[in-house]
Design brief:
single chain, mainly alpha, Helix Hairpins
Length: about 240
Protein backbone atom coordinates (compact mmCIF):
# COMPACT_ATOMS: atom_id res chain seq x y z
CA UNK A 1 0.00 0.00 0.00
CA UNK A 2 1.37 3.41 -0.88
CA UNK A 3 1.74 6.10 1.76
CA UNK A 4 -1.14 8.45 0.73
CA UNK A 5 -3.62 5.55 0.63
CA UNK A 6 -2.38 4.22 3.94
CA UNK A 7 -2.65 7.67 5.52
CA UNK A 8 -6.28 8.16 4.48
CA UNK A 9 -7.11 4.59 5.54
CA UNK A 10 -5.42 5.26 8.88
CA UNK A 11 -7.60 8.32 9.40
CA UNK A 12 -10.74 6.29 8.66
CA UNK A 13 -9.54 3.50 10.92
CA UNK A 14 -8.88 5.89 13.81
CA UNK A 15 -12.38 7.31 13.53
CA UNK A 16 -13.78 3.77 13.66
CA UNK A 17 -11.69 3.04 16.76
CA UNK A 18 -12.99 6.18 18.40
CA UNK A 19 -16.56 5.36 17.56
CA UNK A 20 -16.27 1.80 18.93
CA UNK A 21 -14.48 2.95 22.08
CA UNK A 22 -17.18 5.56 22.68
CA UNK A 23 -19.92 2.96 22.23
CA UNK A 24 -18.23 0.68 24.76
CA UNK A 25 -17.69 3.55 27.11
CA UNK A 26 -21.34 4.53 27.04
CA UNK A 27 -22.78 1.09 27.79
CA UNK A 28 -24.75 1.53 31.05
CA UNK A 29 -23.17 -1.65 32.43
CA UNK A 30 -19.79 0.03 32.42
CA UNK A 31 -20.99 2.75 34.76
CA UNK A 32 -22.58 0.15 37.03
CA UNK A 33 -19.37 -1.88 37.08
CA UNK A 34 -17.39 1.17 38.14
CA UNK A 35 -19.96 2.01 40.82
CA UNK A 36 -19.87 -1.56 42.13
CA UNK A 37 -16.07 -1.48 42.29
CA UNK A 38 -16.15 1.80 44.15
CA UNK A 39 -18.65 0.39 46.65
CA UNK A 40 -16.52 -2.76 47.08
CA UNK A 41 -13.52 -0.59 47.86
CA UNK A 42 -15.48 1.22 50.60
CA UNK A 43 -16.69 -2.07 52.07
CA UNK A 44 -13.14 -3.49 51.98
CA UNK A 45 -12.00 -0.54 54.05
CA UNK A 46 -14.76 -1.22 56.57
CA UNK A 47 -13.67 -4.83 56.70
CA UNK A 48 -10.08 -3.77 57.37
CA UNK A 49 -11.23 -1.65 60.30
CA UNK A 50 -13.42 -4.42 61.71
CA UNK A 51 -10.58 -6.95 61.44
CA UNK A 52 -8.22 -4.55 63.13
CA UNK A 53 -10.66 -4.25 66.04
CA UNK A 54 -10.93 -8.05 66.27
CA UNK A 55 -7.14 -8.35 66.50
CA UNK A 56 -6.89 -5.60 69.09
CA UNK A 57 -9.54 -7.23 71.28
CA UNK A 58 -7.92 -10.66 70.90
CA UNK A 59 -4.60 -9.22 72.01
CA UNK A 60 -6.21 -7.50 75.03
CA UNK A 61 -7.94 -10.75 76.06
CA UNK A 62 -4.69 -12.69 75.69
CA UNK A 63 -2.88 -10.12 77.84
CA UNK A 64 -5.58 -10.40 80.51
CA UNK A 65 -5.39 -14.19 80.45
CA UNK A 66 -1.62 -14.08 80.89
CA UNK A 67 -1.91 -11.69 83.80
CA UNK A 68 -4.59 -13.83 85.47
CA UNK A 69 -2.33 -16.89 85.14
CA UNK A 70 0.52 -14.98 86.79
CA UNK A 71 -1.83 -13.82 89.58
CA UNK A 72 -3.01 -17.40 90.14
CA UNK A 73 0.59 -18.43 90.68
CA UNK A 74 1.20 -15.59 93.13
CA UNK A 75 -2.01 -16.32 95.02
CA UNK A 76 -1.07 -20.01 95.28
CA UNK A 77 2.37 -18.95 96.58
CA UNK A 78 0.89 -16.72 99.27
CA UNK A 79 -1.62 -19.40 100.19
CA UNK A 80 1.17 -21.92 100.53
CA UNK A 81 3.08 -19.60 102.83
CA UNK A 82 -0.02 -19.08 104.94
CA UNK A 83 -0.85 -22.79 105.02
CA UNK A 84 2.74 -23.76 105.79
CA UNK A 85 2.48 -22.28 109.24
CA UNK A 86 6.00 -20.82 109.23
CA UNK A 87 4.62 -17.30 109.46
CA UNK A 88 3.29 -16.90 112.94
CA UNK A 89 3.73 -13.21 113.54
CA UNK A 90 0.12 -11.90 113.48
CA UNK A 91 1.19 -8.69 111.75
CA UNK A 92 2.90 -10.66 108.98
CA UNK A 93 -0.11 -12.97 108.66
CA UNK A 94 -2.30 -9.91 108.41
CA UNK A 95 -0.07 -8.40 105.71
CA UNK A 96 -0.11 -11.63 103.72
CA UNK A 97 -3.92 -11.80 103.92
CA UNK A 98 -4.14 -8.24 102.72
CA UNK A 99 -1.79 -9.02 99.84
CA UNK A 100 -3.94 -12.02 98.98
CA UNK A 101 -7.07 -9.85 98.96
CA UNK A 102 -5.42 -7.31 96.68
CA UNK A 103 -4.32 -10.06 94.26
CA UNK A 104 -7.82 -11.51 94.18
CA UNK A 105 -9.40 -8.11 93.63
CA UNK A 106 -7.07 -7.53 90.71
CA UNK A 107 -7.97 -10.93 89.33
CA UNK A 108 -11.71 -10.21 89.64
CA UNK A 109 -11.27 -6.94 87.82
CA UNK A 110 -9.38 -8.67 85.01
CA UNK A 111 -12.05 -11.36 84.74
CA UNK A 112 -14.75 -8.72 84.42
CA UNK A 113 -12.71 -6.85 81.82
CA UNK A 114 -12.22 -10.07 79.87
CA UNK A 115 -15.95 -10.72 79.85
CA UNK A 116 -16.77 -7.33 78.39
CA UNK A 117 -13.88 -7.65 75.92
CA UNK A 118 -15.29 -10.97 74.79
CA UNK A 119 -18.70 -9.44 74.24
CA UNK A 120 -17.13 -6.75 72.12
CA UNK A 121 -15.06 -9.36 70.28
CA UNK A 122 -18.18 -11.30 69.41
CA UNK A 123 -19.80 -8.17 67.99
CA UNK A 124 -16.67 -7.28 66.03
CA UNK A 125 -16.53 -10.78 64.54
CA UNK A 126 -20.19 -10.49 63.55
CA UNK A 127 -19.34 -7.20 61.86
CA UNK A 128 -16.49 -8.85 59.90
CA UNK A 129 -18.86 -11.62 58.79
CA UNK A 130 -21.52 -9.12 57.78
CA UNK A 131 -19.04 -7.09 55.74
CA UNK A 132 -17.74 -10.30 54.16
CA UNK A 133 -21.23 -11.20 53.01
CA UNK A 134 -21.69 -7.73 51.56
CA UNK A 135 -18.38 -8.06 49.71
CA UNK A 136 -19.38 -11.40 48.25
CA UNK A 137 -22.69 -9.96 47.09
CA UNK A 138 -20.89 -7.07 45.43
CA UNK A 139 -18.43 -9.41 43.77
CA UNK A 140 -21.28 -11.53 42.37
CA UNK A 141 -22.98 -8.38 41.13
CA UNK A 142 -19.77 -7.24 39.46
CA UNK A 143 -19.35 -10.59 37.70
CA UNK A 144 -22.93 -10.42 36.42
CA UNK A 145 -22.42 -6.89 35.16
CA UNK A 146 -19.15 -7.84 33.46
CA UNK A 147 -20.88 -10.75 31.74
CA UNK A 148 -23.69 -8.46 30.55
CA UNK A 149 -21.16 -5.86 29.42
CA UNK A 150 -19.19 -8.48 27.47
CA UNK A 151 -22.34 -9.84 25.88
CA UNK A 152 -23.60 -6.43 24.81
CA UNK A 153 -20.22 -5.05 23.98
CA UNK A 154 -18.84 -8.24 22.43
CA UNK A 155 -19.50 -7.25 18.85
CA UNK A 156 -18.22 -3.74 19.37
CA UNK A 157 -15.22 -5.13 21.23
CA UNK A 158 -14.21 -7.49 18.42
CA UNK A 159 -14.78 -4.69 15.92
CA UNK A 160 -12.48 -2.52 18.02
CA UNK A 161 -9.80 -5.21 18.20
CA UNK A 162 -9.92 -5.75 14.43
CA UNK A 163 -9.53 -2.04 13.82
CA UNK A 164 -6.64 -1.81 16.24
CA UNK A 165 -4.87 -4.58 14.40
CA UNK A 166 -5.56 -2.89 11.09
CA UNK A 167 -4.28 0.37 12.53
CA UNK A 168 -0.93 -1.19 13.43
CA UNK A 169 -0.48 -2.33 9.82
CA UNK A 170 -1.51 1.05 8.41
CA UNK A 171 0.77 2.90 10.83
CA UNK A 172 3.68 0.79 9.62
CA UNK A 173 2.80 1.58 6.01
CA UNK A 174 2.61 5.32 6.77
CA UNK A 175 6.04 5.34 8.41
CA UNK A 176 7.25 6.84 11.69
CA UNK A 177 7.91 10.38 10.57
CA UNK A 178 4.58 10.97 8.84
CA UNK A 179 2.74 9.03 11.55
CA UNK A 180 4.10 11.38 14.21
CA UNK A 181 2.99 14.41 12.20
CA UNK A 182 -0.43 12.87 11.60
CA UNK A 183 -0.90 12.04 15.28
CA UNK A 184 0.14 15.52 16.37
CA UNK A 185 -2.31 17.08 13.90
CA UNK A 186 -5.10 14.68 14.95
CA UNK A 187 -4.50 15.47 18.62
CA UNK A 188 -4.69 19.19 17.90
CA UNK A 189 -7.65 19.00 15.52
CA UNK A 190 -10.34 16.92 17.18
CA UNK A 191 -9.15 13.56 15.91
CA UNK A 192 -8.89 14.50 12.25
CA UNK A 193 -5.24 14.78 11.31
CA UNK A 194 -5.36 14.00 7.61
CA UNK A 195 -7.58 15.18 4.78
CA UNK A 196 -7.75 15.03 1.00
CA UNK A 197 -7.46 17.81 -1.48
CA UNK A 198 -10.80 17.78 -3.26
CA UNK A 199 -10.54 19.87 -6.39
CA UNK A 200 -9.74 23.19 -4.75
CA UNK A 201 -10.64 22.61 -1.12
CA UNK A 202 -9.39 20.65 1.89
CA UNK A 203 -11.86 17.85 2.73
CA UNK A 204 -11.57 18.56 6.45
CA UNK A 205 -11.84 22.34 6.82
CA UNK A 206 -13.66 22.77 3.51
CA UNK A 207 -11.91 26.04 2.85
CA UNK A 208 -11.27 26.80 -0.80
CA UNK A 209 -7.58 27.41 -1.23
CA UNK A 210 -6.18 30.28 -3.24
CA UNK A 211 -4.74 29.26 -6.60
CA UNK A 212 -1.20 30.12 -5.52
CA UNK A 213 -1.42 27.70 -2.57
CA UNK A 214 -3.02 25.06 -4.80
CA UNK A 215 -0.18 25.35 -7.27
CA UNK A 216 2.38 24.96 -4.49
CA UNK A 217 0.56 21.88 -3.17
CA UNK A 218 0.30 20.29 -6.61
CA UNK A 219 3.98 20.89 -7.25
CA UNK A 220 4.90 19.52 -3.82
CA UNK A 221 4.95 16.01 -2.39
CA UNK A 222 1.99 13.60 -2.42
CA UNK A 223 1.23 14.53 1.16
CA UNK A 224 1.36 18.23 1.97
CA UNK A 225 -0.17 20.42 4.65
CA UNK A 226 -3.44 22.35 4.37
CA UNK A 227 -2.45 26.06 4.47
CA UNK A 228 -5.69 26.80 6.29
CA UNK A 229 -6.16 24.10 8.97
CA UNK A 230 -2.59 22.69 9.05
CA UNK A 231 -3.79 19.12 8.72
CA UNK A 232 -1.86 16.71 6.52
CA UNK A 233 -3.31 17.04 3.04
CA UNK A 234 -3.17 14.19 0.58
CA UNK A 235 -2.71 15.91 -2.75
CA UNK A 236 -2.49 12.76 -4.87
CA UNK A 237 -1.83 9.06 -4.75
CA UNK A 238 -4.79 8.06 -2.58
CA UNK A 239 -6.43 5.02 -4.24
CA UNK A 240 -9.86 5.76 -2.90
CA UNK A 241 -10.05 9.19 -4.46
CA UNK A 242 -8.87 8.22 -7.89
ZN1 LIG B 1 -7.80 22.17 5.81
Amino acid sequence: MDVPTALIALQTCDLEIRRAAKLLDELPEKRSILETRHKSEEVRQLKGKAEELVHRLERAIAANTDEVAALDEKIAGVQKTLDGGQVTNPKEVHNLSREMDALKRREDKLDNDTLSLMERLEKAREQVAKVDTALQRLSTRESELIAAYRLKGGEVQSDLEAHKQQRAELAAAVGDELLARYEAAAAAKGGIGAARLLEVACSACRVELPSERLRELREGPDVGVCPNCRRLLVVRGDDASE
